[in-house]
């Protein structure tokens, strides 16, 4: 079975039943779906994608 990865560019989590869908992409949590706009951490305790202090590359999520 293939596991789907979170669409957050710096996240290494897989998407599960709690996935958040946004703009045709699947994210592991609301923080990742929102690009960690307000510094929120990923819901997965072993992932630090929200604490890097660098903006996420969300170019693929922008409407054209």
TL;DR?
This protein is largely without helices or strands and 64 residues long.
Care to describe what's here?
The chain is mostly loops and 64 residues long. The chain has a domain at 1-43. Helix content is 6%, strand content 9%. A two-stranded antiparallel ribbon has the order 1-2. A hairpin with a 2-residue loop joins strand 1 and strand 2. The termini are far apart. Residues 54-64 have low confidence and may be disordered.
Order of helical and strand elements: EEH
For the biggest β-sheet, the strand order reads 1-2
Low-confidence stretches: 54-64
- Percent range for helical residues? under 10%
Q: How many E-type strands? A: 2
- What profile does the largest beta sheet have? 2 strands, antiparallel
Shape: globular
- Give the assembly state of these chains: single chain
Radius of gyration of CA atoms, rounded to a whole number: 11 Å
Q: How confident overall, as mean pLDDT?
A: 80
Name the beta content range: 5-15%
Distance between the termini: 33 Å
Secondary structure tally, helices? 1
SS content category = little secondary structure
């Amino acid at each position: 079975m293939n596991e789907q990865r979170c669409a957050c560019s710096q996240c290494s989590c897989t998407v599960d039943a709690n996935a958040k869908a946004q703009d045709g992409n699947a994210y592991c949590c609301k923080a990742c779906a929102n690009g960690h706009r307000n510094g929120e951490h990923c819901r997965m305790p072993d992932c630090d994608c929200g604490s890097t202090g660098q903006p996420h590359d969300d170019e693929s999520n922008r409407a054209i």
